[in-house]
Design brief:
By secondary structure, the protein is an alpha/beta fold. Among the domains are: 164 residues, no CATH class; 58 residues, no CATH class; 287 residues, Rossmann fold, CATH 3.40.50; 86 residues, Arc Repressor Mutant, subunit A (Orthogonal Bundle). Helix content is 44%, strand content 11%. It has 32 helices and 20 strands. It has a 9-stranded mixed beta sheet. A 5-stranded mixed beta sheet has the order 3-6-7-9-8, with helices on one face. Strand 1 and strand 2 form a beta hairpin. Helix 3 crosses helix 5, helix 3 packs antiparallel against helix 6 and helix 7 packs across helix 8. It is elongated. The N terminus is likely disordered. It binds adenosine-5'-triphosphate. Adenosine-5'-triphosphate binds next to helix 19. It is found in: Cell membrane. It comes from Chitinophaga nivalis. It holds the Pfam family FtsK_4TM. This is DNA translocase FtsK. It is a multi-pass membrane protein.
């Protein structure tokens, strides 16, 4: 019914208003052009061509083979009769394919290329297959090159070898080539030429490995242990990460794509021939095949140690050699060459003082050295050291050494969830959906040229190429009507698919596949990722793993109605990070107003969690404490910026590099900075209870914290505009939407509709880098998270969680008189810092004691009240009025 109605409306559709020209006239003008084009492009034409070439190939094959047996008799007849007589007349031949067969074979063999004529059968075959299948199963141009070479080489070789026979082995071409070459370079030359050509082709094709058997080299003896090894040097040697060196990959395994160290099957890149082109109704089932090992050993990232002494390999002057070492010293600021760990300093004693040794070239060991451990917090020693020539410290600083035995969680802690490796979609379902789509579009008078299907874990994407002349905007306008007509739940129309000019219709699969996090973490992409904070989010429709770097995102906003997969999504992100990061490199700040969602992570408090000083629980559930924690994070951010500025670095990566190279002085407050990831499970709840007090620090962190390694993951059930305000949104370029309840919610979170049409259970849209991608979120169940948390929690951790700077709420202390009775608990410590360093600087207190500006300022006022420092002098540091510890102790005793 609607069909007829719509068809009668057609002219109106084309030209809605105004004095339109007669549509029939216009149509007639355009029709022929469109038809020829369509005919050429039409897949049926291609199929017909395919059948033709395949039959041609078979025909030639039969004719040629028959010719091998009947050539003697048939050749006579071909010679005797003219072409016309032969083809039209009544001549009897023996070839299985009659006169035409005899004629064609004779011309291909005798007048052509001899036995090499079979290469033509092959050529027709590949053309036929390509046409019939509708894609380049065989690469035509490459094959043409091989065939041309084959024609020349085979015909000439056969003519050369079998020149005396009657049978046209090499055909006219082979004979001619052979004749000319033999005349030019002689018989022997021709033979050599053919051998060279033959071998060249074989080498080119198979790339043989010509290996000369290698001389057996004795393994070098282990270097003798240096006689005066201090305990310190021994400790440094123990750091050498022998275990960290990945085991060598066996040659055979490498060829097979099996990486021994990870147990991960790496799929070799698809052969060129396999590359597909867009084809009618093709089924795309691409799956990253991974062999999931029961145990994937992880190797903590340990930087290989630098040699203690660089012994030059080439001949060099002795003096120059020492110069070389000195040149290698890192550029340090004055007095910055100390760091807290024990260092190796090499004291050079003039050779003649130790023993008179004759000067020799290339004998560095003969310069007398004494290796002395020094500890920098002992001041006299530091001074002593300043007098000697320090050498580059032996090893780069390795932050993971505090927990050097830490084992990364293994994959056997996770479940497979029966996630099928290959997604098998019922072909009848595909066919049914395809026909329904075609029929529905026909109802709206939209004809299509091609349709292809890509089966994903939860939905199948039908990609449509509209027929020539159909405007995509028309389909876009009809989006809702088409969705209604298809009447399947969760249909999403993408018109057009960005960058493709095709239209996508996503239809939910009847049988959905769970994407297990285990599979994703076992994938080569994740295992070999070098991202700072790799997160395995889920699988795209084409089954490609979507793994992103949270550090680049740099923050993530997640929304979704209740029960659609948000908590699973957060667990997925957290577990991915736990599988890739050492506790020294990453800390989580977990905010869980719902109190139960993140409680599992309590077990890893001493490894991966950060908390406020003095707090019992690292997982924050109370709104007041959330405000304190967020402000503490802001202080940490400011402190980190100060450190970055002092170090002359722009971001956490550069800073940590400089620190691990021991180019930053920990006595000046420098430290290794772990990444901090703040996770808020229910943001709406926080905004409802604390409003601006929460929004402001979140917005500040979102705006500034990326460079100093603080990243935010904020989740909310209610993505309404009063919760996700403009300020928040502007600073969260990466957003994730699970199914939401309305189009408005979808717009709030993604700036576009679509999330309301998702089908739940981890079906999600990710807006990142200006692209909108539909993913099936990787699934990790609560018991799995528990396993991972237990595995980590049972290992030795730090004494406490990572402590954030203390934050004192101005409201708590404002209005109070600054009396000595109200002294800050850190008063004594602050006084000691000031007296020991003799610097009355507030920022020094901030850095040394990890305090916020307000608290450090208050402490300074209290120190002033106690006459330990002088009054504020603007930008200059205050005078320190107490010069010695004894003096300070007396003042402190009097204050009690
Ligand atoms: N990626 C996924 N794959 C398969 N099933 C999933 C996935 N994510 C979630 N589910 C299913 O959906 C259920 C609800 O998920 P989840 O608890 O994460 O929802 P939620 O959005 O956090 O809900 P709430 O806001 O009420 O906590 C899960 O128990 C699971 O059965």
């Amino acid at each position: 019914m609607s069909k007829n109605k719509l068809k009668t409306e057609k002219p109106e559709n084309k030209k809605p208003k105004g004095a339109a020209p007669n549509p029939d006239v216009l149509k007639k003008d355009k029709e022929p052009e469109v038809k020829v084009k369509e005919l050429v492009k039409d897949e049926r034409t291609h199929k017909v061509m395919g059948v033709f070439f395949l039959l041609l190939s078979v025909y030639c094959f039969i004719a040629f083979t028959s010719y091998l047996f009947t050539w003697e008799d048939d050749q006579d007849k071909v010679f005797r009769y003219s072409t016309q007589e032969l083809l039209i007349g009544d001549v009897k031949v023996d070839n299985l394919l009659g006169r035409l067969g005899a004629y064609v074979s004779h011309n291909f063999f005798f007048n052509g290329v001899g036995v090499a004529a079979y290469l033509f059968c092959y050529f027709f075959f590949i053309i036929g297959v390509n046409f019939i299948v509708g894609r380049r199963v065989f690469r035509v141009w490459r094959n043409v090159k091989y065939i041309l070479f084959g024609l020349l080489f085979v015909s000439m070789t056969l003519a050369f070898l079998a020149g005396g026979f009657d049978f046209p082995w090499g055909g006219a071409l082979g004979n001619a080539l052979n004749k000319w070459t033999s005349g030019f370079v002689g018989k022997t030359g021709t033979a050599l030429l053919l051998l060279v050509a033959g071998f060249s082709w074989l080498i080119w094709k198979f790339n043989f490995d010509f290996k000369w058997p290698e001389k057996k080299v004795k393994p070098p003896k282990p270097a003798p242990v240096a006689p005066p090894v201090t305990p310190l040097a021994a400790a440094a040697a123990a750091v050498t990460p022998a275990a960290a060196t990945p085991p060598p990959v066996k040659e055979a395994d490498r060829k097979n794509g099996l990486r021994e160290d990870s147990g991960v099957m790496v799929i070799p890149p698809a052969a060129e021939e396999d590359l597909d082109e867009f084809s009618p109704m093709e089924l795309v089932e691409r799956e990253e095949i991974t062999v999931i090992p029961s145990h994937v050993p992880h190797v903590p990232p340990v930087v290989p140690p630098a040699p203690i002494l660089n012994e030059p390999e080439e001949e060099e002057e002795e003096g120059e050699e020492l110069m070389l070492e000195l040149k290698e010293l890192p550029e340090m600021e004055e007095g910055e060459d100390e760091d807290p760990g024990p260092l190796l300093y090499i004291e050079e004693t003039p050779a003649e003082e130790v023993a008179p040794t004759p000067k020799k070239k290339n004998a560095p060991q003969e310069v007398a050295f004494e290796i002395k451990p020094t500890f920098q917090d002992e001041e006299e020693e530091v001074e002593e050291v300043a007098a000697v020539r320090p050498v580059v410290p032996a090893d780069p600083y390795d932050p993971s050494l505090d927990l050097r035995d830490y084992q990364y969680p293994t994959l056997d802690l996770l479940e497979n969830h029966n996630a099928d490796k290959v997604i098998v979609q019922d072909t009848s379902e595909l066919e049914k959906n395809k026909n329904q789509i075609i029929d529905t579009l026909k109802n709206y008078d939209i004809s299509i040229q091609k349709i292809s299907a890509t089966v994903g874990p939860t939905v199948t994407l039908y990609e449509i190429v509209p027929a020539a002349g159909v405007r995509i905007s028309r389909i876009k306008n009809l989006e809702d009507d088409i969705a209604l007509s298809l009447s399947a739940l969760g249909i999403r129309i993408i018109a057009p698919i960005p960058g493709k000019g095709t239209i996508g219709i996503e239809v939910p699969n009847v049988k959905k596949t769970i994407v297990s996090l285990k599979n994703m973490l076992a994938s080569e992409k994740f295992q070999s990722s070098t991202m700072d904070l790799p997160i395995a989010i889920g699988k795209k429709i084409d089954n490609e793993n979507f793994i992103a770097d949270l550090a680049k995102m740099p923050h993530l906003l997640m929304a979704g109605a209740t029960g659609q997969g948000k908590s699973v999504g957060i667990n997925t992100l957290l577990v991915s990070l736990l599988y890739k990061k050492h506790p020294s490199q990453l800390k989580f700040v977990l905010v869980d107003p719902k109190k139960v969602e993140l409680s599992l992570y309590k077990l890893i408090e001493k490894h991966f969690l950060a908390k406020l000083p003095g707090e019992d629980d690292a997982i924050i559930t109370d709104t007041k404490k959330v405000i304190h924690t967020l402000n503490a994070l802001c202080i940490e951010m400011d402190l980190r910026y100060d450190l970055l500025k002092e170090a002359g670095t722009r971001n956490i990566r550069e800073y940590n590099n400089k620190f691990t190279q021991r180019r930053l002085n920990p006595l000046k407050g420098h430290r290794y900075l772990p990444f901090i990831v703040l996770v808020v499970d229910e943001f709406a709840d926080l905004i409802m209870t604390a409003g601006k007090e929460v929004e402001m620090p979140i917005a500040r962190l979102a705006q500034l914290a990326r460079a100093v390694g603080i990243h935010l993951i904020i989740a909310t059930q209610r993505p309404s505009v009063n919760i996700i305000t403009g300020t928040i949104k502007a600073n969260f370029p990466a957003r994730v939407a699970f199914k939401v309840s309305s189009k408005i919610d979808s717009r709030t979170i993604l700036d576009i509709g679509g999330a309301e049409q998702l089908i739940g259970q981890g079906d999600m849209l990710v807006s990142f880098n200006g692209e909108l991608v539909r993913l099936q979120c990787a699934f990790v169940d609560t018991p799995e998270v528990e396993n991972v948390a237990e595995f980590i929690g049972n290992q030795k951790g730090y004494p406490d969680a990572f402590l954030l700077p203390e934050y004192v709420d101005d409201k708590d202390s404002d209005g109070k008189e600054l009396t000595l009775a109200d002294r800050d608990p850190l008063f004594e410590e602050a006084a000691q810092v000031i007296v020991q360093t003799q610097q009355g600087s507030t920022s020094l207190l901030q850095r040394r004691m990890k305090l916020g500006y307000n608290r450090a300022g208050r402490l300074m006022d209290q120190l002033e009240a106690a006459s330990i420092v002088g009054p504020n002098m603007g930008s200059k540091a205050r005078d320190v009025l107490v010069k010695t510890d004894a003096e300070l102790q007396e003042i402190l005793n009097n204050l009690l």
